[in-house]
Amino acid sequence: MFKIISIVVITLFITACNDSDTPKKVEQDHVWKQQTDMIDKAKGVEQLLNDAAIEQKQSIDRQIQQ
Q: How much is the pLDDT for 41?
């Protein structure tokens, strides 16, 4: 029983003292990088289209109110 407790305590000390808490950059090339880049690009295009639609609606509203 003492062996098990000592192994658990030693394991806790070792894991408590490692550097895994420091943030590491995970933004490296990965398998889905091309797909995630395309999704980001599509979000940018979507925002552009939404802005254009809002501007067109405002233009129509101004013309109606005249």
A: 95
CA–CA distance, 57 with 51 (Å, rounded to integer): 10
Residue with tokens 């420091």: 22
Alpha carbon distance 28, 26 (integer Å):
6
Q: Residue ranges of the domains in the chain? A: 31-66
51-65 b/e with 16+ CB inside 10 Å = b? eeeeeeeeeeeeeee
Over the range 16-25, which residues count as b (16 or more CB within 10 Å of their CB) and which as e?
eeeeeeeeee
The model's pTM: 0.48
Q: What is the mean pLDDT of each run of 10 residues along the chain (66 residues)?
A: 86 69 62 91 96 96 90
